[in-house]
Amino acid sequence: xxxxxxxxxxxSAATGPVLATAATAMGLMSGLFFxxxxxxxxxxxxGDDRTYVTAMQNINTAITxxxxxxxxxGALAVPAVGTWxxxxxxxxxxxxxxxxxxxxxxxxxxxxxxVNVPLNDRLAAAGDPAALxxxxxxxxxxxxxxxxxxxxxxxxxxxxxAALTRALLTHRRTTR
Length: 176
Fold this sequence. Notes:
Blueprint: H1 3-45, H2 49-62, H3 66-89, H4 92-125, H5 135-175
């Protein structure tokens, strides 16, 4: 077996697990954003302003951890690797779906970095919720935009997950 054939065979053997890992990471991100849309934000919306600010500050601090960071980055890196593997093996349809997923998730990350994170930073900068003179104003400056951007992240990640699922199914059909 030539080196090129051996490399292509190894790449092909790795592609299925890479796509499954990509879909898992994307599913975790999509699920996280979805959970905020359907439970966390509506639950917090039912509470008072000071509790809302306190809870979101605490959530924003807690989510900054290595496990979340690994999934956040992995949901971009692993589909990108899958795209490269599929391209090298000549699987054009699956390559396209994986590339679409990567671009959709990249858009979600751009949204996160340009909208959600700056809002989180401003919320943290507001200071101790117990000392706020106008917690309603702090909440009003945060909640509507953050929530709308999170819904958009959910849609982008869910679409990326669908694209990865399609890529995985297309790859499986190609390799049978």
